[in-house]
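Ticket #4471: structure output looks truncated?

Reporter: J.K.
Steps to reproduce: submitted the chain below (187 residues) through the standard prediction queue, then opened the result file.
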Amino acid sequence: MKPLTTTQHRALVAHLEQAPSDYWNAMLELIARTGARVSEALMVTRPDFDVKRKEVRIQGVKGSRGRVVPLPEPAMLRIMEGISRPPDTAQVSQVRRLQRHWECLRFHLFGCDAQGVTLHGLRATVALAAYAAGGKDIMVPKELLGHVSVASTGRYLEGSRIRGLRDKLLRHLRGGPPRTSRVPDTA
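Returned output as attached by the reporter:
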């Protein structure tokens, strides 16, 4: 899964901050800020927002845990306004419509530079940003994305330019320093 670059991610969020607060822009901003899966984002309703704490509750799917994610208040209010008018369609249709909206917006903002970045790629973008902001601690994106296993989180960070991630992940999984010599394959 291909993520947006940091510059592209900032441009997307800046655009969504200025865009009309409709349902589809609200869903994109929710995904771009929280790393929610599309199915998780589509399940978010107004009661899931805690304005006083500036948090949104994301219900887990696909074996992931539910989680509470911080959101800046202006973004939260925009998203709450946008999702207050959900379309009257089945979830499958909503997923397709959201994908089309993302593809049009992605092309409008980035042309061919972000070709291949899917809605799920936004999840990887958020994982990379959380990893960098969290002092390169893999547990930060793990908790943000609601993963049960750190190995799942590692897949989101694998294709990035973060050096040494594999060693850090292996060290974490093994509970010690990474091996310096290669272990021969037994297969």
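Triage note (M.O.): checked the attachment and the full token line is present. The longest strand covers residues 55-58.
Status: closed, working as intended.
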